[in-house]
Structure prediction request, 606 residues.
Amino acid sequence: MKKYGVIGTGAIGGYYGGKLARSGQEVHFLLHRDYDYVKEHGLQVDSCDGSFHLDHVNAYHSTADMPQCDVVLVCLKTTNNHLLKELLPPLLAPHTIVVLIQNGIGVEADVQQMFPDTAIVAGLAFICSAKTEPGRVSHQCYGSINLGNYSCKDEARLHALLDDFHNAGVEAAMVSYDEARWKKAVWNMPFNGMTVALNTQTDLLLQNPSTRKLIRDLMMEVVHAAQHLGVSNVDESFAEKMIEMTDQMTPYSPSMKLDYDFHRPMEIHYLYSRPLEIVHNAGFRAPKLEMLEAMLRFVNAGE
Amino acid sequence: MKKYGVIGTGAIGGYYGGKLARSGQEVHFLLHRDYDYVKEHGLQVDSCDGSFHLDHVNAYHSTADMPQCDVVLVCLKTTNNHLLKELLPPLLAPHTIVVLIQNGIGVEADVQQMFPDTAIVAGLAFICSAKTEPGRVSHQCYGSINLGNYSCKDEARLHALLDDFHNAGVEAAMVSYDEARWKKAVWNMPFNGMTVALNTQTDLLLQNPSTRKLIRDLMMEVVHAAQHLGVSNVDESFAEKMIEMTDQMTPYSPSMKLDYDFHRPMEIHYLYSRPLEIVHNAGFRAPKLEMLEAMLRFVNAGE
Prediction:
């Protein structure tokens, strides 16, 4: 049995942390607004794969009270990542693995700079879930997680982590770090921003021939940027596959569109500014993605 | 005295045609919705330079009833330019000059294709005016017109046209055709589309550092496209001047934003698609302008 820490017990942290706790791991949850409720009533996970309730949750209001952990799952929105410098230290032992289950590109590099000696792993969640009320997570579909190794030198611990996910009933696999982050960006960068900029959903963007072409152009800018950076297996055919896949989806509002609709901070920095900075520093221009970033900055300022 | 025809008696046609009529020219006005009103009550021009009323207006409901004219002022929105093939022929004599007082790039070439032997001149109006009610034009400020010779071989007639404007109290000057159209595009292409895409006005776009940079980027794409086409005197310093000028203006909604606000057709074709087609055919790409066009097509489809 290992000690797990979960920073941010929402739709993602509540689900993966909840599954691990149910499977018998010792999981310590950091909560903010829901602390009192969960301390008293526990955590409910309504899931398409079988609902369950955790009666006794190791709930904390401050990481200062939490123990050092073997694995920390960071499930904050990246708009709160500046808090990690204060939040993480009490949980870190020399052998701790920090898994960033977050959106965007550049999060691992920036957290590594805060904690140069910590083993960092990217977590790419493929899941539809939402926190519907205090202490209650609704898991609608999917649920797998891919792990991309950023700086963990201990392969054995990584495989033990995979085993823990499997034992908890979570599909998990190791993937190439750069490839996974950039493949996710091929979908994320066009659709998150465009649904906000035009206040629409994925289906309408693909039905209109002008924006369908624009979505493809934006995807190709991500593909060519990734290729310029030397990331392997990100090519034009992958972008085509992403468009076909989205054609098959029900009308969808990406996370940034939901943030916009509910007047929450948008993850512009790690979804646009940081990747564009990395790309520019490598001498590559992505003019349409730049334009989208500027428009999102304008929309965000008006919020 | 010359015979003038005015196709489209709105904010522009009502003002310039009205000024010419008041100065003693024989002016024939095509009207649509306002025909009955103007036939009975005449035309009122409320103007910062002195208001006036035309009691008896040569008003027509169809160009079939209009005489051949020495000069025809086309003051339609370009979204109606497909009608010109039917509307213009009754007014055209071999010596007729057609002045297109319209927005965008490519209108002269397209009208020339409909009427290969007709002398065509571009009219670039610098004016704030609006049709406020039937038969009533409100002219708030400016009012000058620049003429760019597209295909008129008779210089003497062009100078006589300038004289008529001057005698009517309208500032008018001959300018280089390509230069004038592209200089206007340096302002028009960024501001018309961006105020619609972000549902805002000129001042807020320039106050936000991200969109201020984007406006400059879009202007530079127009400048570099014009330079690629060999248009002279359109350079980066002109774009900077346009930004400084707009900084000094009161918060402004360009014509496309007004069309959007009042659910009228937007001039996407001649403000974006045609110039971008010309630019692409010359082997130049303007990715941010392309993106703006696609977003406007999406917005327009939702209207």
Observations:
- The beta strands of chain B are 3-7, 26-30, 43-47, 52-54, 58-60, 69-74, 92-101, 119-133, 136-149, 172-175.
- The interface with chain A takes residues 197-198, 200, 204-205, 208-211, 213-214, 217, 287-288, 290-295, 297-299, 301 of chain B (CB under 8 Å).
